[in-house]
Amino acid sequence: MGYPKEILIIRHAEKPADSSNENLSTKGYERAAALSYYVPANFGDIHHIFAAGVGLKSPSKRPVETVTPLAERLKKKIHDSFLKYQYQDMVTHILNDDTYNDSVIAIAWQHTNIEAIANAFGAKEVPTSLWPESCFDLVWKLTYNGDTTYTLTQIPQLLMYGDTDQTIVDPIEKSFCEKLQTIDPRELFGTQAPIPAGNFPNQAMTCIFQVPKAHVPEGLTEQYIFVGASFLLNEQAIIDNQIAAILNVAYDVNDKKDLQIPFSDPQIDKRSALPFEKAPNENYYLNQLSKVGLIDGSDNDIMTLVAAVQEAEQLLNFPSPTQQKADGLVNFYAQGNLIIHCHDGGSRSVTVTALYLYYKYYVNTDIPFVDVYKSIIALRWNYASNHHPTQGICENAYEVLNTFEALFPEPVRKMS
After folding, report:
1. pLDDT in tens, 259-289
2. Which fold, 176-414?
3. Alpha carbon separation from 246 to 116, 231, 254, 268, 336 (Å, rounded)
4. Strands across the sheet with 48-51, in order?
5. pTM of the complete model
6. Domain range list for the chain
7. Does 3.90.1150.30 match the CATH number of domain 6-156?
8. ∠323-362-220 over CA atoms, to 5°?
9. Whether the predicted pLDDT of 414 surpasses 70
10. Nearest to 159 by CA among 334, 57, 32
11. Which residue has the higher pLDDT, 383 or 397?
């Protein structure tokens, strides 16, 4: 086997504007002359020179012309028996001939085949992006690894006026959290945007989800989950949407004066009064408050995010007032709907809600977390707040997903 220690692959030099001219342009001949000094000065002894030959369906003379000054200066033969489309035959010839073992080879070819040539030699991490049409000033150096593979290094020539230090790289695929920062969330679902659940005003808060009947706690016939903005929460909104539990995932504290509402007139609230008479030391509230503070950045301890998800589960499954009294409580809370809120109701509250719904209802289905997340983001954007989750809280959510296989109904367990 003949494994060269280094293989230098270059594109032929500049071509004329006239596409029928198969020779180099004036600048191309200048580059070819410069390469005859540049190549040995930067890469040492060149033992063999290859170039795409001229023949049927391979009319270009430019590859041979590009390395002619180099071959003449080094007194080397140009191996041009392989035509443009016969690059695989050339590679096979080199690798199967001991003549080329431990040598340095220079290859001039058309840019459309350079990626394939590098791959044929077994190069690692070869870019799949197209070689730019205007790029004539780049050397691809393949260095033998001793195991039938080569390492690719891209070296800008910087030989002539106008040469750049640009290399060919594949575009970095952005994560969903990164893409989310620059797209209009209304585009997440195109013409099939999700609509709120239930029959609620969807003004101060957005009804995201109706709890399946099998999961509605005893004492209720229906139950809904809302997402809202802290600054829009008030007594009337809580009454209108029959909110019984409020989970604050903003960093600010709850204002109990505004949000923990004593039971008043059931005709106003449209919820039943206590099924028993209150004692003087007992109180009944339309809702209970809970607080798990999160920040929009990525500095949250993911266990805090997990705690918020589990708190949502506890609030949704709060026992009936009758059961609360049987448990010895003196402050009773109504059952009903849950709202998860933060400042604008578009980032932390959306993220906690998405995690809760995914782990509770979708983790064992074919529906991925990102679809649940996108649906809630689009709902909030379309019906309320023009905000979307920040990159930080979004990345925290994926950290939870990558750490915990399940949160419900089993206890929290780390993925094996």
Report:
1. 555 555 545 556 666 788 888 898 888 788 8
2. Protein-Tyrosine Phosphatase; Chain A (3.90.190)
3. 60, 13, 9, 19, 11
4. 78-79, 48-51, 104-109, 6-11, 138-144, 150-156, 123-124
5. 0.65
6. 6-156, 176-414
7. no
8. 25
9. no
10. 32
11. 397
195 touches 380 (CB < 8 A):
no
Percent of the chain surpassing pLDDT 70 = 92
CB 46 within 8 A of CB 76: yes
Give the sheet arrangement for strand 205-210, strand by strand: 205-210, 224-229, 337-342, 243-248, 288-291
- Please say whether the beta carbons of 377 and 190 come within 8 A: no
